[in-house]
Amino acid sequence: MQLYYPYEKHHGCQDIIKPAEKDIMAFSLLKLTNKTIYTSQSGDYEVAIVILGGIASVNIDGFQFNNLGQRADVFSGRATAVYIPRESSYEIHALSDNFEAALCQVRADKKYIPFVVRPEEVVVNHRGAHLWQREVHDIIVENGDGRVDRIVVGETYSASGNWSSFPSHKHDRHQPPEETELVEIYHYRIEPANLFGVQLLYTEDGKVNQAFMIRNGDTFKIPYGYHPVVAPPGVRLYYLWFLAGPHGRQMIPYDDPAFSDLRKLETT
Protein backbone atom coordinates (compact mmCIF):
# COMPACT_ATOMS: atom_id res chain seq x y z
CA MET A 1 0.00 0.00 0.00
CA GLN A 2 1.39 3.38 -0.98
CA LEU A 3 1.45 5.85 1.91
CA TYR A 4 3.85 8.61 0.81
CA TYR A 5 3.16 10.72 -2.30
CA PRO A 6 6.00 13.11 -3.21
CA TYR A 7 5.13 16.42 -4.83
CA GLU A 8 5.18 16.65 -8.63
CA LYS A 9 5.02 19.94 -10.52
CA HIS A 10 1.79 20.32 -12.41
CA HIS A 11 -0.82 22.70 -13.79
CA GLY A 12 -4.54 22.14 -13.78
CA CYS A 13 -5.86 19.24 -11.72
CA GLN A 14 -3.51 16.57 -10.43
CA ASP A 15 -5.07 13.46 -8.88
CA ILE A 16 -2.60 12.54 -6.14
CA ILE A 17 -4.53 9.82 -4.32
CA LYS A 18 -6.91 8.51 -6.94
CA PRO A 19 -10.37 7.14 -6.19
CA ALA A 20 -10.32 3.36 -5.77
CA GLU A 21 -13.16 0.89 -5.35
CA LYS A 22 -12.27 -0.11 -1.78
CA ASP A 23 -11.00 3.29 -0.61
CA ILE A 24 -13.16 5.82 1.15
CA MET A 25 -10.97 8.83 0.31
CA ALA A 26 -9.21 10.57 -2.58
CA PHE A 27 -7.16 13.75 -2.91
CA SER A 28 -6.32 16.17 -5.73
CA LEU A 29 -4.56 19.51 -6.14
CA LEU A 30 -5.81 22.20 -8.50
CA LYS A 31 -3.70 25.04 -9.94
CA LEU A 32 -5.28 27.63 -12.23
CA THR A 33 -4.31 30.93 -13.80
CA ASN A 34 -6.59 33.97 -13.85
CA LYS A 35 -9.85 33.58 -15.81
CA THR A 36 -9.44 29.84 -16.34
CA ILE A 37 -12.21 27.41 -15.43
CA TYR A 38 -12.10 23.89 -14.00
CA THR A 39 -15.23 21.76 -14.45
CA SER A 40 -15.93 18.43 -12.77
CA GLN A 41 -18.48 16.20 -11.06
CA SER A 42 -18.37 14.83 -7.54
CA GLY A 43 -19.92 11.43 -8.37
CA ASP A 44 -20.01 9.15 -5.32
CA TYR A 45 -17.88 11.58 -3.29
CA GLU A 46 -18.58 14.65 -1.22
CA VAL A 47 -15.81 17.21 -1.79
CA ALA A 48 -14.32 19.95 0.36
CA ILE A 49 -12.52 22.54 -1.76
CA VAL A 50 -9.95 24.18 0.53
CA ILE A 51 -8.48 27.28 -1.08
CA LEU A 52 -4.73 27.25 -0.45
CA GLY A 53 -4.12 30.58 -2.17
CA GLY A 54 -5.79 33.01 -4.55
CA ILE A 55 -9.38 33.94 -5.37
CA ALA A 56 -12.12 32.08 -7.25
CA SER A 57 -15.86 31.79 -7.72
CA VAL A 58 -17.55 28.40 -7.49
CA ASN A 59 -20.82 27.25 -9.08
CA ILE A 60 -22.41 24.01 -7.82
CA ASP A 61 -25.59 22.97 -9.64
CA GLY A 62 -26.82 26.57 -9.67
CA PHE A 63 -25.52 27.54 -6.22
CA GLN A 64 -23.17 30.46 -6.92
CA PHE A 65 -20.44 31.50 -4.47
CA ASN A 66 -18.44 34.50 -5.63
CA ASN A 67 -15.01 35.99 -4.84
CA LEU A 68 -13.85 33.32 -2.41
CA GLY A 69 -10.40 33.31 -0.84
CA GLN A 70 -8.52 35.92 1.17
CA ARG A 71 -4.99 34.52 1.51
CA ALA A 72 -2.03 34.47 -0.85
CA ASP A 73 -0.81 31.15 0.55
CA VAL A 74 -1.43 28.88 3.53
CA PHE A 75 0.92 30.86 5.79
CA SER A 76 -0.88 34.19 5.29
CA GLY A 77 -4.35 33.65 6.75
CA ARG A 78 -7.21 31.32 7.53
CA ALA A 79 -8.77 29.13 4.88
CA THR A 80 -11.89 29.50 2.80
CA ALA A 81 -13.59 26.21 1.92
CA VAL A 82 -16.54 25.11 -0.20
CA TYR A 83 -18.56 21.95 0.46
CA ILE A 84 -19.78 20.06 -2.63
CA PRO A 85 -22.31 17.25 -2.13
CA ARG A 86 -22.16 13.95 -3.96
CA GLU A 87 -23.82 13.70 -7.40
CA SER A 88 -23.11 17.37 -8.14
CA SER A 89 -21.64 19.23 -11.10
CA TYR A 90 -19.35 22.14 -10.27
CA GLU A 91 -17.18 24.82 -11.84
CA ILE A 92 -14.28 26.71 -10.31
CA HIS A 93 -13.56 30.08 -11.97
CA ALA A 94 -10.11 31.40 -11.04
CA LEU A 95 -10.06 35.17 -10.44
CA SER A 96 -6.36 35.53 -9.73
CA ASP A 97 -3.09 34.14 -10.97
CA ASN A 98 -1.56 31.33 -8.97
CA PHE A 99 -4.92 30.12 -7.69
CA GLU A 100 -4.49 26.86 -5.83
CA ALA A 101 -6.94 24.58 -4.04
CA ALA A 102 -7.04 21.16 -2.44
CA LEU A 103 -9.89 18.84 -3.40
CA CYS A 104 -10.58 16.63 -0.37
CA GLN A 105 -12.86 13.80 -1.49
CA VAL A 106 -14.75 11.29 0.68
CA ARG A 107 -17.15 8.60 -0.46
CA ALA A 108 -20.64 9.58 0.75
CA ASP A 109 -24.05 7.94 0.97
CA LYS A 110 -26.18 11.02 1.65
CA LYS A 111 -26.52 14.20 -0.39
CA TYR A 112 -26.59 17.55 1.42
CA ILE A 113 -26.70 21.24 0.45
CA PRO A 114 -23.57 23.13 -0.72
CA PHE A 115 -22.13 25.71 1.65
CA VAL A 116 -19.07 27.91 2.23
CA VAL A 117 -16.85 28.16 5.30
CA ARG A 118 -15.31 31.62 5.40
CA PRO A 119 -12.09 32.59 7.24
CA GLU A 120 -13.94 34.18 10.15
CA GLU A 121 -15.87 30.91 10.65
CA VAL A 122 -12.74 28.77 11.02
CA VAL A 123 -12.32 27.70 14.66
CA VAL A 124 -8.75 28.21 15.91
CA ASN A 125 -7.43 25.94 18.69
CA HIS A 126 -4.09 26.21 20.49
CA ARG A 127 -2.97 22.73 21.44
CA GLY A 128 -0.05 21.07 23.16
CA ALA A 129 2.61 22.53 25.43
CA HIS A 130 6.38 22.90 25.72
CA LEU A 131 7.90 21.29 22.59
CA TRP A 132 4.66 19.99 21.09
CA GLN A 133 2.75 23.24 20.51
CA ARG A 134 0.71 23.89 17.39
CA GLU A 135 -2.28 25.85 16.11
CA VAL A 136 -5.17 23.75 14.81
CA HIS A 137 -7.82 25.26 12.51
CA ASP A 138 -11.16 23.43 12.37
CA ILE A 139 -12.72 24.04 8.95
CA ILE A 140 -15.45 21.38 8.75
CA VAL A 141 -15.59 19.66 12.13
CA GLU A 142 -18.44 20.31 14.58
CA ASN A 143 -20.01 22.77 12.15
CA GLY A 144 -20.42 19.85 9.72
CA ASP A 145 -22.88 17.91 11.90
CA GLY A 146 -26.08 17.48 9.91
CA ARG A 147 -24.53 19.28 6.92
CA VAL A 148 -22.07 16.68 5.58
CA ASP A 149 -22.05 12.90 5.46
CA ARG A 150 -18.56 11.75 6.55
CA ILE A 151 -15.87 14.33 5.87
CA VAL A 152 -13.90 16.14 8.62
CA VAL A 153 -11.41 18.85 7.52
CA GLY A 154 -8.87 21.18 9.11
CA GLU A 155 -5.37 22.63 9.03
CA THR A 156 -2.47 22.48 11.49
CA TYR A 157 0.44 24.90 11.89
CA SER A 158 3.34 23.34 13.75
CA ALA A 159 5.68 25.67 15.61
CA SER A 160 9.35 25.58 14.63
CA GLY A 161 11.23 22.87 16.48
CA ASN A 162 8.03 21.29 17.80
CA TRP A 163 6.22 17.97 17.48
CA SER A 164 2.64 17.81 16.25
CA SER A 165 -0.10 15.17 16.26
CA PHE A 166 1.47 14.58 19.65
CA PRO A 167 1.37 12.90 22.12
CA SER A 168 1.31 10.17 19.48
CA HIS A 169 -2.23 9.07 18.70
CA LYS A 170 -4.04 6.75 16.34
CA HIS A 171 -7.61 6.09 15.18
CA ASP A 172 -7.60 2.76 13.35
CA ARG A 173 -10.12 0.68 15.32
CA HIS A 174 -13.78 1.20 16.20
CA GLN A 175 -13.85 0.82 19.96
CA PRO A 176 -15.86 3.70 21.45
CA PRO A 177 -15.67 5.43 23.84
CA GLU A 178 -11.91 4.74 23.75
CA GLU A 179 -11.26 5.14 20.01
CA THR A 180 -13.05 5.58 16.70
CA GLU A 181 -11.97 4.34 13.26
CA LEU A 182 -10.95 7.03 10.79
CA VAL A 183 -8.61 7.12 7.79
CA GLU A 184 -6.68 10.37 7.39
CA ILE A 185 -4.75 12.22 4.68
CA TYR A 186 -2.11 14.90 5.32
CA HIS A 187 -0.91 17.44 2.74
CA TYR A 188 2.15 19.48 3.73
CA ARG A 189 3.63 22.88 3.06
CA ILE A 190 7.08 23.84 4.32
CA GLU A 191 8.58 27.30 4.81
CA PRO A 192 11.32 27.87 3.72
CA ALA A 193 10.30 25.62 0.84
CA ASN A 194 13.74 24.07 0.40
CA LEU A 195 13.72 22.57 3.91
CA PHE A 196 11.82 19.54 5.24
CA GLY A 197 9.80 18.01 8.05
CA VAL A 198 9.52 14.45 9.34
CA GLN A 199 6.47 12.18 9.36
CA LEU A 200 6.58 9.12 11.61
CA LEU A 201 4.34 6.06 11.41
CA TYR A 202 4.40 3.13 13.83
CA THR A 203 2.04 0.50 15.20
CA GLU A 204 1.52 -1.02 18.63
CA ASP A 205 2.90 -4.41 17.60
CA GLY A 206 6.09 -2.90 16.16
CA LYS A 207 5.51 -4.34 12.69
CA VAL A 208 5.39 -0.81 11.25
CA ASN A 209 8.22 1.52 12.31
CA GLN A 210 8.91 4.13 9.63
CA ALA A 211 10.09 7.71 9.20
CA PHE A 212 9.55 9.85 6.08
CA MET A 213 11.32 13.07 5.12
CA ILE A 214 8.49 15.32 3.93
CA ARG A 215 9.03 18.16 1.48
CA ASN A 216 6.93 21.11 0.43
CA GLY A 217 3.82 19.84 -1.42
CA ASP A 218 4.06 16.19 -0.35
CA THR A 219 1.04 14.13 0.72
CA PHE A 220 0.69 11.21 3.13
CA LYS A 221 -2.08 8.67 3.68
CA ILE A 222 -2.67 7.32 7.20
CA PRO A 223 -4.83 4.17 7.23
CA TYR A 224 -3.44 2.93 10.56
CA GLY A 225 -0.93 3.53 13.32
CA TYR A 226 0.45 6.36 15.42
CA HIS A 227 1.51 9.28 13.22
CA PRO A 228 3.35 12.22 14.86
CA VAL A 229 4.88 15.01 12.78
CA VAL A 230 8.12 16.90 13.51
CA ALA A 231 9.00 20.46 12.45
CA PRO A 232 12.79 20.93 12.60
CA PRO A 233 14.19 24.17 14.06
CA GLY A 234 13.80 27.01 11.59
CA VAL A 235 10.90 25.33 9.75
CA ARG A 236 7.28 26.46 9.61
CA LEU A 237 5.33 23.30 8.93
CA TYR A 238 1.72 23.27 7.75
CA TYR A 239 -0.49 20.36 6.94
CA LEU A 240 -4.02 20.14 5.64
CA TRP A 241 -5.81 17.13 7.12
CA PHE A 242 -9.05 15.40 6.42
CA LEU A 243 -10.60 12.24 7.81
CA ALA A 244 -13.46 9.84 7.20
CA GLY A 245 -14.54 6.46 8.48
CA PRO A 246 -17.28 3.85 8.28
CA HIS A 247 -18.84 4.64 11.67
CA GLY A 248 -19.64 8.35 11.63
CA ARG A 249 -17.70 11.60 12.08
CA GLN A 250 -16.86 11.46 15.79
CA MET A 251 -13.13 11.86 16.43
CA ILE A 252 -11.82 9.92 19.43
CA PRO A 253 -8.05 9.45 19.01
CA TYR A 254 -6.21 6.92 21.18
CA ASP A 255 -2.96 8.14 22.72
CA ASP A 256 0.14 5.97 22.84
CA PRO A 257 0.23 4.92 26.53
CA ALA A 258 4.01 5.43 26.56
CA PHE A 259 3.42 9.19 26.33
CA SER A 260 0.30 9.44 28.50
CA ASP A 261 2.05 11.50 31.21
CA LEU A 262 2.52 14.37 28.76
CA ARG A 263 -1.19 15.16 28.93
CA LYS A 264 -0.70 16.26 32.54
CA LEU A 265 1.87 18.84 31.43
CA GLU A 266 -0.64 20.40 29.01
CA THR A 267 -2.79 21.54 31.92
CA THR A 268 -0.04 22.98 34.14
UniProtKB/TrEMBL annotation:
Keywords, sorted A to Z: Isomerase
UniProt-listed InterPro entries: Deoxy-glucuronate_isom_IolB (IPR024203), KduI/IolB_isomerase (IPR021120), RmlC-like_jellyroll (IPR014710), RmlC_Cupin_sf (IPR011051)
Molecular function GO labels: glucuronate isomerase activity
Gene Ontology process terms (BP): inositol catabolic process
Residues in the signal sequence: none
The organism's place on the tree of life at top rank: Bacteria
EC number of this enzyme: 5.3.1.-
Pfam families on file: KduI
Name of the featured protein: 5-deoxy-glucuronate isomerase
Gene: iolB
